[in-house]
Design brief:
The protein is an alpha/beta fold. The chain has three domains: 1-32; 35-154 and 293-396, Rossmann fold (3-Layer(aba) Sandwich), CATH 3.40.50; 156-288 and 417-425, Rossmann fold. 41% of the residues lie in helices and 17% in strands. The strands form three sheets. The protein has a seven-stranded mixed beta sheet with strand order 8-7-9-10-11-14-15, covered by helices on one side. Strands 2-3-1-4-5-6 form a six-stranded mixed beta sheet, with helices on both faces. It has a two-stranded antiparallel sheet with strand order 12-13. The termini are far apart. InterPro entries: BCAA_transport (IPR051010), Leu-bd (IPR028081), Peripla_BP_I (IPR028082). Pfam families: Peripla_BP_6 (PF13458).
Length: 427
């Protein structure tokens, strides 16, 4: 009995050893799993796929320059398709807040979700980085702890650029506003009215999302028959293509030039209006002052685009023809600012702390950051009523006008008062 007990004890001892080794190996394997920092991309991958894809590619290219890693954490982009629906965007914000790996949200093309839920974003601490949506209220939450940072066109200034171009370059004297009936359209109305003054506006026409060609043609015919000599348009690609084609279709009348916000470049717009533009219709639209059409002339830009081509060869065979090019440019530059911010924080597994640290650091970035549009020096600061542009990385001097070329590429129109492009990377 004594021998049997000893044998049984030895047998049990070996099983305990095997169990401990297995458990230890499993524990080591678990600790060696890569830690992740997620960046949600809240965008319309359904109706405005061109813009969503361009933004994703721009951010991915910036992250690839640091091998998608920072402080031992793997950086990961997570597509979140809101389909142009503000409530779906809100759902993504809630998912973000409950995700222990989610660091930030990269916004999309549409302004309404971020205007509608601005208080929720700031009160709950959703770190929102905006590379496209231009609605002026988005970054102007009236408290010092502001969680939204934008590197994009800002409608508090865009309207002035559109009006200035209409007057100086196209000699318009009676401008008709053609605006989508959303908070984005309404914010632009205020800016454009202020920019035009009392004697330059022919009128305002509102349209809804999903306006089709037949309705667009009636609206355009009424505008042409008014005193208007040009149209200032604020809308997106699905409706914009119908208004452009409607203008081109009118016979026996002078075609009014259309000066547009950049929303038209966010979807499958150019193929739908190519024939209309070939008939001589003037369509100019606002862009930031860097064009992928010029990338080969800038050493830094060429390096960025070459990397992007390796990452996305099926989409960037001809970078100068990329649809929604500023989505790529803005997201790349914003990604560089994000990476600079991450260098100034100590990342941990406490994601709430990471978000808070990063929000504060973005307002006081230590070093200059070279981007495609320009070199950024202290692009953000603490918001106050006396510092309305605190969370705007771009200003009026960074905004240009552009047009489509015959191949669908975007060419910037010259500005007499500005050297276009990042002077720091032109050598």
């Amino acid at each position: 009995m004594k021998g049997l007990s000893l044998c049984a004890m030895k047998h049990s001892y070996w099983w305990v050893c095997i169990y401990c080794v297995a458990f230890s190996c499993a524990s080591i394997a678990a600790t060696e799993e890569p830690r992740v920092l997620k960046i949600y991309h809240d965008s319309d991958y359904s109706n405005h796929y061109a813009s969503a894809l361009a933004m994703k590619m721009g951010l991915a290219t910036a992250l690839a320059q640091v091998n998608n890693q920072v402080q031992g954490y793997q950086l990961q982009i997570v597509e979140k398709n809101h389909r142009g629906n503000s409530n779906r965007s809100f759902l993504h914000m809630r998912q973000y807040l409950n995700d222990p790996d989610a660091l930030a949200v990269l916004g999309g093309l549409h302004s309404p979700p971020y205007i509608k839920y601005r208080e929720y974003i700031n009160e709950r601490g959703v770190l929102l980085l905006v590379p496209w949506a231009a609605g002026s209220p988005i970054t102007r939450y009236p408290k010092a702890e502001n969680w939204v940072f934008r590197l994009s066109i800002d409608d508090s200034k865009a309207g002035y650029t559109l009006v200035e171009h209409a007057k100086q370059s196209l000699h318009c004297k009676n401008m008709q506003l053609l605006l989508e009936n959303t908070p984005w359209g309404k914010s632009n109305e205020k800016t454009m009215r202020a920019a035009m003054g009392p004697n330059s506006m022919a009128g305002v026409t509102w349209f809804n999302w999903n306006t089709q060609y037949a309705s667009a043609r009636i609206i355009i015919r009424d505008i042409v028959q008014s005193e208007a000599d040009c149209i200032l348009f604020v809308g997106n690609a699905p409706e914009g293509k119908h208004f452009v084609n409607a203008m081109a279709s009118l016979e026996g009348v002078d075609k009014l030039p259309i000066i547009s916000h950049w929303g038209i470049t966010g979807g499958a717009f150019f193929p739908a209006v190519k024939e209309s533009l070939n008939r001589g219709l003037i369509l100019h639209f606002i862009q930031s002052c860097f064009s992928l059409r010029d990338y080969q002339y800038h050493t830094f830009a060429k390096e960025v685009v070459t990397l992007a081509q390796r990452l996305f060869p099926e989409h960037l065979e001809f970078p100068e023809r990329l649809a929604a090019p500023t989505g790529f440019v803005h997201s790349y530059d914003l990604g560089k600012l994000l990476l600079q911010g991450l260098q100034q924080v100590t990342v941990s597994n406490d994601m709430v702390s990471n978000r808070k640290q990063l929000r504060a650091v973005l307002e006081r970035l230590d070093n200059s950051v070279v981007g495609l549009i320009k070199t950024y020096k202290n692009p953000f600061s603490v918001w106050s009523s006396d510092n309305q542009d605190a969370h705007e990385a771009l200003g009026k001097d960074d905004v240009c006008m552009a047009k489509y070329e015959h191949d669908g590429g975007v060419t910037l129109l010259p500005r007499r008062d500005k050297v276009v492009g990042n002077e720091a990377v032109n050598d």
